[in-house]
Amino acid sequence: MVMMDPISVLVSVVVILFLVNVFKNQKKSINFPPGPMPLPIIGNMHVINTLKPQKSFTEMSKKYGPIFTVYLGAQRLVILCGYDTVKDALINHAEEFAGRPCTAMGSKISNEHGILFSNGENWKVMRRFTLSTLRDYGMGRKDIENKITEECDCLLQIFRSYGGKPFNNQTIINAAVANIIVSILLGHRYEYDDPTILKLMNLVNENVTIMESRMVRLYNSYPSLVGWLPGSHRTMTKNYTELQKFVTETFTRKQRELDVNNQRNLIDSFLAKQQEDKPESLLYFHNKNLVRLVGNLFAAGMETTSTTLRWGLLLMMKYPEIQKKVQNEIENVIGSAQPQVEHRKEMPYTDAVIHEIQRFGDIVPGSLPHATTTDVTFRGYNIPKGTIVIPLLHSALRDKAYFEKPEEFYPGHFLDSEGKFKKNEAFIPFSLGKRSCAGENLAKMEVFLFFTALVQNFTFQASPGAKLDLTPALGIINSPLPYEISAIPRR
Questions:
Q1: Most C-beta atoms within 10 A of its C-beta, which of 15, 75, 80, 377?
Q2: From residue 248, how far is each of 41, 93, 111, 253, 468 by CA, in Å?
Q3: Residue 180: phi, psi to the nearest 5?
Q4: For the ranges 20-29, 369-378, 396-405, which has the lowest average pLDDT?
Q5: What is the pLDDT of residue 7?
Q6: How many angstroms separate the CA atoms of 190 and 195, rounded?
Q7: What percent of the residues of the chain are helix, what percent strand, and what percent coil, each to the nearest 5?
């Protein structure tokens, strides 16, 4: 009798499971979108650029069309490419594409709670609560604008402390932006070197980096076989556990201090909801939802906005002539006064530059994954309920039909022939439809006020001989690679 070693047995089992899964999918899916032939175990991961999967998907769309299928391990994904296709799915078929996929990692870190990865009525209740509470605590209004301008002053002071010498701005900008969402969630701010905020930011930054790693993808495909192995999937779970522990300890303290007649932040509002004598309070306003919701909002509120600002400063160093034009407009419109949101409508060039930073930075190239909530026929293809769908925001922000120079940093994309600001419908960095970013208005306000204040007060330069690399770092978010910056005071 021939004995097989354990590794051979494991590989054989995985191959069989993969082939069974592919065969089952093919039987269920008549007229499913086309795509490259998957290999056992890894699916199509061998033909996808790990550093820039959006680039691989864009190339595949040239062969298979704007709607096609790929396998990441045993996970089957439908990719939507081009603004017209993405808009059609997320706007014209909004309900059918409004789900989130149920994955092994998602179950570990969310388990259908919170707002980012939940579904059904729980998601709808949490989104309504989030939107109304963000409005209550000033999103889009003067009181939150004042908090941002106060934080701008703190950030400018830190930048000045370097005296024009090179430094890495990542932690500083992360902390400044984090303080805005923290003020809404918890009602206070942290100093930039506070160990608590440093730890929280590190947990989020690390998870953003490893969320797209191969081990996480393989874990989602084969959780029972891969789960016991060391790797980034275990690091991600550990980080989420630590973040949830912090949130739990924080709201436990706030429960003892709660005054329902004097609600000061989002956690207060959630805890007050728990005390309402309504069926919705018992069903949805429980502690598991609170922990995930606060963690979701902290991560989303910090990472994308701070990444946008870091792209902005890097691009100002790369293109000093654009930086100078922004400074000239600031001097003409604002002078030495503190920037305010109302200035934006008088600053078409600065507005165009900020839009182009967001477009070119391509912060969330694939968006968070969607899932079909029912069987749907979309543009001639049958897509079953529960299929993972990636609306490729990268393909909209780089769509040649809408942007003249899609691969270049070109503020002219948002300026007309007279130099006035013009909108572009394919500009969708916050996505579209029912799953679009709940904090979009807050993010827009933050980016304008922080960016304008920084460029008003400093000229940004690279270190002598430094190469300014515009290649994004690995991760679900397109962050700039680490770089040093010199902030030369202008006044």
A1: 80
A2: 38, 37, 16, 9, 41
A3: -70, -50
A4: 20-29
A5: 46
A6: 9
A7: 55, 10, 35
Q: Residue 1 has what pLDDT?
A: 42
Overall pTM > 0.85: yes
What percent of the chain is modeled with pLDDT above 90?
68
Phi, psi of 340 (to 5 degrees): -130, 155
Q: Return d(Cα 280, Cα 49) in angstroms, integer.
A: 45
Residue in the block written with tokens 């953003």: 208
Provide the mean pLDDT of the chain: 90
Residue with tokens 């978010």: 477
Report pLDDT digits (tens) over 256-279: 888 888 888 899 999 999 988 888
Strand order in the sheet with 484-489: 167-168, 484-489, 458-461
Q: What is the pLDDT of residue 472?
A: 87
Could you identify the residue written with the tokens 């429960």? Answer: 255
Give residue 416's identity as a one-letter amino acid code.
D
Distance CA 406, CA 384 (A): 33
Element holding 69 (H helix, E strand): strand 67-72
pLDDT at residue 2 greater than cutoff 50:
no
Q: How many CB atoms lie within 10 A of CB 237?
A: 17
405 Cα distance to chain centroid: 24
Where are the extended beta strands (E) located within 121-161?
A: none
